[in-house]
Batch of 3 targets.
Target 1
Amino acid sequence: MIKIEKLHKSYPIGKDSLHVLKGIDLHIKEGEFVSIMGSSGSGKSTLLNIVGLLDVHDEGNYFLNGQLIKNMNEKKAALLRNKFLGFIFQSFNLISYKTALENVALPLYYKGISRKERLKTALDYLEKVGLKDWANHLPNELSGGQKQRVAIARALVTKPKVVLADEPTGALDSTTTDSVMDLLKDINNEGMTVFVITHEEEVAEQTKRVVRLKDGLIISDEITAVGKSKAV
Amino acid sequence: MFDLDRWREIFQSINKNRLRSVMSGFTVAFAILLFTLLFGIVSGLSNTFKGAFVDDAQNAMFIRVWKTSKPYKGLQTGRRIQLKNKDYNYVTEEYANKIQYQSARIYKNFAIKYKSNASNYRVMAVNPDHQFLEKTMIDEGRYMNERDLNEAAKVIVIGRLIKKDLFGERPALGKRVNVNGSSYLIIGVFSDDGGDNEERKAYIPLTTAQRMYGNNDYVSQIALGYNPNLSLTEAVTFGNRLERDLRNKLNIHPDDQSALSVRNMAEANKGIGQFMGILYAIVIIVGSGTLVAGIIGISNIMIFVIKERTKEFGIRKALGAKPLSIVSMVVQESVLITTLAGYLGLSLGTYILSLIGNSLEEKYFIKDPSVSPSIVIVATLVLILSGLIAAYVPAKKAANIKPIEALRAD
């Protein structure tokens, strides 16, 4: 599903440039539940942004669903994001003046689906994350955990191939962290590829495969206990 | 083109960000309001100036005489000049092809009496052409004709207000009135746009006055309507030539304005034309300045708004929005606000102008101020275009920011 070969990325800082990713090779197959671990500055967010087509890489190859990602313009990238990818952010990134239901329905709008169908599908997904009763509330009327569940519903509503989560539990307490992780597990059990970035061991433990980054390089890539038990 | 979902998005955005929408709308509405008022007021001034001359025909010329102020060819200063029928005929013969209408004038002040009602009025003895020179509008009956003139008939055409004074609501046509002791038949009643004084006048045939009052061939004034095919410049030249010829003929110093002068509407029209041209030029400069200030205002607000929404655009892009859809959403929103606000300002301005109406005519010479439809259309187009540009430039820039940077924005 995701295949990365010798990926390099640097950011210009004044006259110098900061080499963030120094040759990453990573292959994630369909249906995997992978977490990327690393301290801040290790390049894990950069990796996720490149995988999510929110940023472009400098060198190396990136294949998404078998398609080589190269010379993407914003229009093509937008189409691919809409079609293949669902995003979950640490800060939720809900649109503040739209209700939970409208936020969830938004990706379907960009997919060109009729309003009636959008709202129906969005409501189904809100029900799935247990927030059907909150459909008409604005984000600032929801708790952090609820917001993140709305964001998850929004990420899933287009039935993407890959769900990308950037520190999805970073702003949540331990109870809500568990409920969010349970949701991600459910998603993965339905066959979706889930790609999580975290610096919390407890979160990483619940995924099936942990990739550890340090200074822009992969230092380990292991199947977790959960992953092993499922594989058997 | 019409995308209901797109408009739903736009209305939601406007509705949820009322302060912002109202602010940007206010800037435009205010600019257009000022623009409309400015244009309206100048058009009101222009109406007053044009109105000042509706009394007489646009192509009228008046030859007036008085005492000489300069000695000439051995003749003394202070000599009284008198126009006579031969001078009138000289003008007719010399300038036939340059003249549309011609009439002599003799001014008299007479008491006009009907039964027990009597009052003093200005009575003018004229030729039939005078009707067109003075823009006399016949309400009832007729004006005098050549036959009245040939017969020196004792007929009179009275102003609407004389009729009102003497007859009230009763009919006046066909009745006889006593003018300075003689009986005259009323053959017509007229009205005139020149004001009340003009409608308290009466006209009698020139020949009648010459025969009845002095038995001479004197003429007080000669009024002309120059050929309308002449340009303003040609008409001014004609007036000057006429003045020179007549002074020469009557032995008047060529520069003696007091003894004989030609008042030429062509000169006045030329002056007004130039004056209004300059006034409109000033208004266009100031008015455009106001519009530009409004446009800059809305551009500033749009830049701020778009900066504020950068993160939202980042979210939308992460969810699959194409840059074009973001740009067109913002542009449509901006155009909608500018158009609505522009119309609001325009309607408010037009409404205020209609309230003003003629109330400022006395003191400020502003009569019936209004804006023409063509200016309304141009201003609206300018607004839509400016709303478009004001939004397009920053929106395009925002839409091209990489989503990762847009998401990081606060």
Note: The first strand of chain B starts at residue 60 and ends at 65.
Target 2
Amino acid sequence: MYRFYLAIRYLVTRPINLLGMLGITLSVWALVVVVSLFSGFMVVIEEHVRETSADVAVTNLPLWADANKLGRALTDDPNVAATAPRLVHFGLLHEAGKRPPPPPLPGRSALHGGDQPFLFVYGVDPAQERQVSAFDAWLTSEEIPAAMRVADPSRPFATANDRAQVLVGLERMKREGLARGDELVLTTGIRRGGEGRGEFQQVAIELEIAGAFKTRHGGFDGNILFMGIGELGRRLAASDEPGPAEPSPTPGTGNEPAQGQQRVQEIAIRLHDPTAVDDTARRLQEAVFRTLQRRHYGYGLVETWRARNADFLGSIEHQRWLLKIVLFVILVIAAFLMLATLSMMVTEKTGDIGILTSMGGTPGGVTMTFLACGLTVTALGVALGIATGTVTSIYLEEIRQFLIWATGVDLFPLDVYNLDRVPCNIDGWWLLQVTGMAFGTGLLASALPAWRAARHDPLISLRGN
Amino acid sequence: MTSPVLTARCVHKSYRLGKTEIPVLRGVDLEVQSGEIVALLGASGAGKSTLLHVLGLLDPPSEGEILYDGRSVHGLSIRERARLRHDHTGFVFQFYHLIPELTALQNVLLAGMMTDSVLRYWSRRQEAKKAATALLERVGLGDRLKHRPAELSGGERQRVAIARALLAEPRVILADEPTGNLDSNTAEGVIELMFELQRERDAAFVLVTHDEGLAVRANRIIRLRDGVVVG
């Protein structure tokens, strides 16, 4: 009993111990708030990425693959709700007769849509695409101004002339001052000739902007164009005649689709149960290999949405880990502060060690007295830090609004990240981990002074003042 | 015949200073009977305080043995020795050694907490408080219960220390120059109080002093010189 009684008395009579407690509180608060904010940010980013990625996609399909047969094999799986073919190409977008804009400066992040001229072109079938993604919602977003809105979202690529209709991301439209009906050129290239041979040929596809699309993933909006899959396939095929030295390809064995067959490079898949995505992806991979007869290594890879964005999501997760490490250092510094104040207290209280021993105390009891001091400081610091950190995390948006009102400074500009409010995800497991880390460091910081107190010879303090 | 409450048999104690062995006690034999007042008299450096610490199990003898109620304490664990120290002996020191953060009442109560768990103490806290208050009233500090040591005079502090030593109702009180830091009037009052309490409780009393006038009031005087009992 005396250990805890004395520990509390020692603490309440020494306000300097508040320093250690405040240090722990501050570091725990930072660990909770910053990680909750970052976790919230990750959740939102994942949602945004997820929105623009099908649950599963079969990628790297060879041109000779029979997309219809493959589609039937995929829809045989009980968890597959819908499939949509895509043709993925690339190119430089620019005005007719003008050079493409220069490449972006180093450091410009693709996350925010970038300003690079190099783009990916997704050839899609709108009817099928809206079965696997939020394609309709992207075209009818309320953020799209009337002058940039697609005339008929049910037939976005319908055209009255011979120019290919294209959908451009809203931010790019705004940035480059584009409007519906503007004419642009996509300069791209295709390879002429057989597999492993041939040369690239420049191709210019004349485009007309059918309207803007808007997702919540800035990187997607900034780097993707949508075209009708048939139109894109035709434009590429028209320039894709084999050179005179090339042998005529044999359908099903060379690099050409079979006659009358649509060019498909990728099949996007929506699942009935997205939580079973990994198991489904494994089954689909087997189905694709069976259908393709595994003739070419690297073709027909089945990837989940998470695997497709692994680098991007991984880099954010990596940043979160770095943040955790940096914030943990603050906790260690707070523990050093506590160690210093407890050491001072032990030096001051050596006189008490003698009298405690004479009354029946043991070195273990003396150790526990000072350990109890440190652990009490830690417990109070952790409790305060967790409580204030949780409340701060919950009201982050309100705090941001208040700071803008009071100082005019926006600490977290939402439009940069396509967010509606400051994200926050308070993870109970992380709170437990923070508590554990704080108690671990608190215990280590208390153990040294407590051990020093226990080693003190009680007779030295009893022999005289 | 009952065993002495405290026995020292051929106790030697020496300290090592670098490579030199410094003998402090050299074969001390001593028996203290229940209810007896024994004065340990000797000049500074004679080994009085060291003998008191050895008798109180604060310092183990280099040779010889200590017996409590006829039972040797040799070979007891740290915890067992601490428990025995708590139950069997009470200490009063020259410099009081009160804990400055605690009031007079809390300092006395602390002695009652030493061997109790939190739950056990909580269940008997009223009883412990009553006993501590009664003791403080007995030593004349009934109106000073909530005063901290810094707010008490030297004599009052020593009275608190005496009350603290008596709370666990020990068989032996070991007092190391309890009046050495007090003026003569206050010292007289403190000594009178100690002797009264000793009679009331029939506890043995080992009193270290170099004051001949005080020593003659004891039942027996043991003189120490250079670590040896000389009379």
Note: Chain A has 16 helices and nine strands.
Target 3
Amino acid sequence: MVPLPFSWRTFGCLWALMAAICAAPRHGWGQWRSGELVRASYSDADTAGVAAEEAPDLGDTEGALAESDALADLNALLDADITQLAHTDIVAPSFSTPITTVERQESTVGRTAAAIYVITEDMIRRSGVRTIPDALRLAPGVHVAQIDANKWAISIRGFNGRFSNKLLVQIDGRTIYTPLFAGVFWDVQDVLLEDVARIEVIRGPGSAMWGANAVNGVINVITKSSRDTTGFFAESGGGNERLFASARVGGETKNGSWRFFTKWFDRDAGRGVGFEPADDWQLTHLGFRIDQRVNSLDEWTIQGDYYNGDAGTRAIFPLATPPFLGQGADPQTIGGGNILCRYSRRYSADDQWTLQFYYDQTIRHLHTQGFREQRHTVDVDFQRQLKVGLWHRLVWGMAYRNTADTISNDGLAIKFFPNARAINRYSVFAQDQMTMIDDLFFVTLGSKFSYNDFSGFEIQPTLRLLYTPTASKTVWASVSRAVRVPARVNQDLHLTTVPVSVPFFPAYPQFRGDPNFDSETLLAYELGMRSSPSKEFYWDIATFYNRYNHLDGFLPRSPGIDPVTGLFVLPFQFVNGVVADTVGGEFTTSLQLTDAWQLRAAYSLIAIDVDAAPGVTLSDPTQGTVRNIAYFHSSWDIGNDIDFDLMGRWVDSMKTGNIPSYFEIDTRIAWRPNDVFEFSLIGRNLLDCAHPEYESDVYAGALATEVQRELYGQAVWRY
Amino acid sequence: MAVNGKNRNRTADCARQVRRRWAMRACLLLVVGVAMLPASAAAQDPVVEREAKIKAAYLYQFLNYIQWAPGTFQAEDSPLVIGVVGDDPVNKYLKVIAAHRKANNRRLEYREVQTPDDAAGCHILFFGDQVAADTIRQYIQERTGDPVLLVGENPSFIQIGGIIAFVVADNHVRLQLSMKEASKRGLRVSSQLAKIAHVVD
């Protein structure tokens, strides 16, 4: 029994603080809009309207109606100059950031009953990052730990690990987590960051819309339409840790547009402590996208990628004969391709449908360890959104996915039984956003119903409340159930790791899947609030209490001779034998100090309590959870043509692997002599020569390397 | 063998109970907190989204920037008729505006239009977001040549034959304007309005 690292008293205090903030008089914290305002709902406005019938020329008299503020605002608009109308903000600017992930339809941050953060195009460019994992460090609540130069452990709200398995990650609607372990192989998730429109990061379950695996969060990388990427773009650069070059060309056709890009990079290995690192990473990537308008309503998109490269590793692995323990560089070949087609018809913003199909293939080959996985995925997804009556915004859809893999059981260490398996998944979902009080109170009810070959039927409902007292303030709450369906590893793994008690008598710990392994479940309670007291200042707080059940753990079984390998093994079997509670929150704020200087900061806190059923091995009571993470980013425009950015991040110590806490500074300075060229110099992890972020992985035998200080220059050409 | 959460040991259960009690207190605080919200909200700006209001304001302002052909109004004091097709959040504001405001020294009349025949005599006809393109087309054809300003929100409104379309982009309500369709109906659009709109043809 692990004592809860922070008490419920703290949680209560947090809430008291929030309640106090809610109750604070508006004058105490800035003016959103001028005028002495008294809240009036629209029904009030209507009655006021009737009452004022005797005073017909309201514009002159400012009569009875003026008391009702909904109409004071309207009067101001009616009397405004027409050119002013064109520049009137519909909602507070920080609330207007568009998002699609939460409700699978266009919405804005201000209208969202979920903990959402949007990493914008501008933030990506100004941070100087080169990979998706590094871009994810910009979002609150996301813990990104680099294992070696091509591997990352990434999680939201705890449970981090190389094989962390509670996130749903998508690139343009294509799901990229692998059913092999329900996590993501980040070394093949590459995009041309210049073409990314935004990365939407949702903390908390998105399962009612997105289904299995959207347990702790959803990450959705959305690239720009080819309409927005016409012309030429080229970039090239390098430094002590990496070299890269990319180029893109785009154009317009009669009713549409297209782009084609190519990208290459070579990343140097990290710092090996006591061994020669072998985690170099190269990737070549070709991609295209075509967007075409068929008529005034219909539109289609076709996009595809092809990539190929090497992502090496320094591996330790078991041997059947003395010395029983092997160590060596394992050059890993990675490759794949995908094609995605999407057809959509849009009658209006509230009445449209989309049909999407994709095919995805990946190949991964660990040469030294003798592991080769080839996977084919086919996915069809239909979604319809419509407005029913005045109060119901309905979204429903259905999907089918088939994913089939073939795994070579050549090596001693990593084997799967059966070695080839195809998994089907069928699902339907429906969600209704109900307007209970116009522009003030909304209730969203939805659920996903799915069937998969691993765990059978799953139901994942959600209830979300959204309260929007003003244009610049949102309070929301939700209760959701989510499941993490079993992955191949949970049911079919046969993993032999490096032996103990060498050299007298080697005994090999062995991890085995269990065909009876069932889904992990989560019941999540969330409460959040965001506000933009002025155009320059924005803050967002989200809190959660998550109850996990049936989490995976290992149950030791009786030692003996393994019939497959003929070795004496100490078997451990996957069981749904762990329960956990997490509680915490994230605070995000942005402040525009002057027109040229913006500050952003984020802080996340999480406490975890884990219990294991009797007999179940609990190797890590924190489950890879890092308690505190803080981040700040200062963006300063020095004149029109120089950008100066400074980012700092502090990550608390990680109990798993005894990784100490660290604080690092990244910086970027860029100069644009004209509209065509941009030159920048980026420094990352400047405070230490090297620092560790994650431990060596005993299961898959990958030795972790430390993240090194790096400097690189970059030249960009846009035309 | 599958072990589930029910098999927790007793100490864990005990600790959980204590924590549940705290959870209850936290929930209570939460409820109190939320209950306090309306009180604070009372001192706040009433609107979440001004989109509908901005659109209603535009429709009202158009009256000053559009000149109807001479003879459109039978009498000096004939009202300006604003017709709405379909249910839309904009309507309720138009209704209030019509009841309390004047334009060009004329009274305003608000009319909820159900069929193309109802639309006879309207000076502005506003098609809500819900109205399908086919319905809009039907109205436009049946009222060909009428001196009526057609305003809509459908993405293909201008292609169908509308005059002004509202387009929401970058947190602003923008206008698309077809001068060709306006002149077909004998409407004169002031240059000031044309300047702020995106003129399609």
Note: The CA atoms of residues 27 and 33 of chain B lie 9 Å apart.
